[in-house]
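WARN no homologs supplied; continuing
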Amino acid sequence: MLPITHQLGLIGVVLALVLGLFAAWQQRSGGNIGSILLALLAVAFAWAAYSTRDWGDAYQALVAVLGAVAFFASPSYLAGGIEDAWPKRLQSSYFLLLGVFTASLFALGEHWSLLALWVAVEATTLSSVALVGLKPGAHPFEAAWKYLMLAGMGGLIALAGVVLIGGGPATVAAGAVLLLVGFGAKAGLVPLHTWLPDAHAQAPAPVSALLSGAELAGILWVLHDGLDKVRTLTHGAAWPNDLLIALGLLSLLVGVGAMAGQRNLKRLLAYSSVEHMGIIALGMGFGGIGLLGALLHVITHGLAKSQCFFVSGAIQTRYGTVDGDKIGRLHEGMPWGSGGLLLGLAALAGVPPLGPFFSEWLVAMGGLASRATAVPAILMIALLAFGFIAIAYRAPRLWYQPTTGIRPTPEAAFETVPTVVLSTLLLISGFAVPWLLHWPLPH
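OK structure emitted
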């Protein structure tokens, strides 16, 4: 008899595939039914996480929540606003691929062998590449092609790393480096992050929410699992952690540096993802309470970033653009959505008492706990301060500047549901930290 948590994981995989097929047949009603069933599954995963204190269950609960919101928000996004609606044929393909993508994300939270997890990572890549390129137009195809080339190359490199790690102590060092490069490319770590801004800018907003809120961090989770095997084979060698810290700092530096110059809201959020993947990598490299902060940041960042991407989709539907220089008086055209976006951006900037502030604080404390990692931790704190300034500089323009003659369509009542749900969970995440501090670290 399989453990209940393993059964739930397999149920999530199968359910997402079935819902994708059903929604491909019945777009709007299928999306609504899918959102309800995935929301119920999220409750089941949350109960399992509460009972077992297992971070894999907590991650799968996040996937179920974001998947439910994606299925719910997709019909109105595909129906179009100022932009043209998607053709019916593409809508069917979209929902089918969304089901495969969500199913593969559930698989990332399972306690499988490293090779099986590599297969799950490849499934997330291929399905998300197809979703990025499915959007009508030349630019989405170009972004999907770049994504496929870099992430596909990363997948082959990671596979070589998996094979070498399985070869024993003689090849484990080379395997660890290849695993770090391969999965790092897929997770958007610098320097192989260049596909990420274009993919986010062109992907449908529900896909961007899952891609940034769940996939990137899930791949880092798999990377941590692989490096944990390396540490076992090398009797606790520190150099895998040193590599993670170096890549984490570099990603944080590039992400923060690029954010201030972005006018496109989705590209701003994409570079923010590079920044926050760097934070997670740093926490995993610091270890101890830093690792706890990294695991917590997977959840808190996932809620905040998905909130922002879902609202960006609503903005694009109503304004026909996500160019920050053309959008203004957002609170007048989208009172609920603008409130959710403000909360999400505040969370990404590290404003207390929202969840990302506490998870970032734990990562920093993990670095400061050791003399060997104190300098990277101090650099991280300084870069986070610059990240706060970048968001504080760019974001207010969406509220105070006048629009350039664009009149948005009014918000529908049902479209406020994702904003309310994710805002509530984001607020709760900050107050749940004391309970999560007692969770055991994965072995």
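The chain has a mean pLDDT of 85.
OK
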